[in-house]
Amino acid sequence: MAWHQLRKSLLAFGKSQHGALVVAAGGTTGSFAVLVTCCEEAETKNHRRSASSLDGYKKQELPTSVEQLKEKLASSTTNKLLTQRSTEINYVAEKESQSFLVRLFGSKTTKKRLLPPRQTSFLMPPEKVGSYSYHGQDSHQRHVTDDSKHAAPGKKKWVTVVYEKINQDRGNVTFPFYDDKRSALFATFDGHGSKGELVAEYCMQTIPERLQQHPELKTNLEKAVHEIFLKVDKEIRSMAFMEPMHSGSTACLVLIRGQQLSMINVGDSRAVLGTRNNKDDDGTISAVDLTIDQVASNRDERKRILERGGYISEPKEAGMAHRVWLDPQCTRIGLGISRSLGDHALKHSGIIPDPVVTDRTLTPNDEFIIIASDGVWCLMESIEAVNIVQDGFNKGMGASEACLELIEASKKRWNDSEGNTYRDDITAIVIRLDDLWNDANNAV
């Protein structure tokens, strides 16, 4: 099997009690794992699918439970390999052993022979591409017996219990994309709601692969993306175990093809470009938002929501978002974004899954890209994140180390803002652009 067949490299982030593809790896950024998928031999030389084969793929029976979804992934025609690492996205190689750790949706870890020893699985080099995810935390008040020395017998007291949340963020790196060694797809999916991790997981598993299979990928990317997102959203609606009425996910994807960028965005995850300004003698770095947050404070988004019968509440305090509601009293549900995959209870209130697709051509001044969930952007401006990453590069760090610096800075912002009582999931991907393709292909 040739190297270009090892093309779909997915990473599933976070510590999860259910619904996540994880192998605990510890470390300061929480647990995560890297999922590498080895594609079967395609019938055509360049792995392109015809329109008829795509139709057949869409007609496949959908899972109706977590167990069926787990079984579907495990029995897929593509072998799923999950490799544990104690550092993030890195070059993954298994040259001697055929045993790989496999864990799907909380099932017991098992060993399974999947690849001959001569083959290795790979990701992009950590000097060029890095990603980390840190699970969130929440708290609640509990009435407990006061067992302090001077407390009266039976006296109760309120204590704050802080606990780790299920990490509902997901992300993936697909390289090579569409069998093109100068193309790669980077994405984050930020789940929310009661089963948001399942929605984000499903989006991560389906969207990148279907995008590669779409017959109009190269001729009409915007049409292909819209068809895929609407189809996936419809499928989510049919899977009751995901609780799709009250669960959803953002999606922020950046497709790099040579020097051409294509951004695909739903929700408030964000992609930002760090670029140098030639007019400055010191070559200072600037931040360019590659995507626009889709929130109810945006004029066009607000107009659509109100026209379709939704209701919008103003932020209660600085730093909080406008929220979309079902009722004028703003008591039934409440969503802080204006577009999402899932969240079907609000579909008649103007919440749509339609992605916004934009393009940009890279220039020699463009240094790096950050793609992150709102765990970064809630308390940090784009230019602040760009400066943190650039400072890391100035200190000789690679993309992985610079990404970790960004995650740690975001974590500190949450601690400073909320104390130890709340923190959102924090996920980021950093892509260093200089000589990306040569370094990526030389790592293979």
Written overview of the protein:
The protein is α+β, with helices and mostly antiparallel strands and 444 residues long. It contains 9 helices and 21 strands. The strands form 5 sheets. Strands 1, 2, 3, 9, 10, 11, 12, 13, 18 and 19 form a 10-stranded antiparallel sheet that branches. The protein has a 5-stranded antiparallel sheet with strand order 6-21-20-14-15. A two-stranded antiparallel sheet has the order 4-5. The longest helix has 20 residues, at 399-418. It is globular, with a radius of gyration of 22 Å.
Blueprint of the fold:
Blueprint lengths: L7 E6 L18 E7 L12 H8 L7 H9 L4 E5 L15 E4 L7 E4 L15 E6 L2 E9 L10 E9 L4 E6 L8 E11 L2 H18 L7 H18 L8 E3 L1 E7 L2 E7 L3 E7 L8 E5 L9 H9 L3 E3 L9 E3 L15 E2 L13 E6 L4 E7 L1 H4 L4 H13 L4 H20 L7 E7 L3 H7 L2
Antiparallel strand pairs: 1-2, 1-9, 2-3, 4-5, 6-21, 7-8, 9-10, 10-11, 10-12, 11-18, 12-13, 13-19, 14-15, 14-20, 16-17, 20-21
Helix pairs in contact: 3-4, 7-8
Can you summarize this structure?
The protein has 444 residues and is an alpha+beta fold. It has helices at residues 51-58, 66-74, 196-213, 221-238, 299-307, 374-377, 382-394, 399-418, 436-442; strands spanning 8-13, 32-38, 79-83, 99-102, 110-113, 129-134, 137-145, 156-164, 169-174, 183-193, 247-249, 251-257, 260-266, 270-276, 285-289, 311-313, 323-325, 341-342, 356-361, 366-372, 426-432.
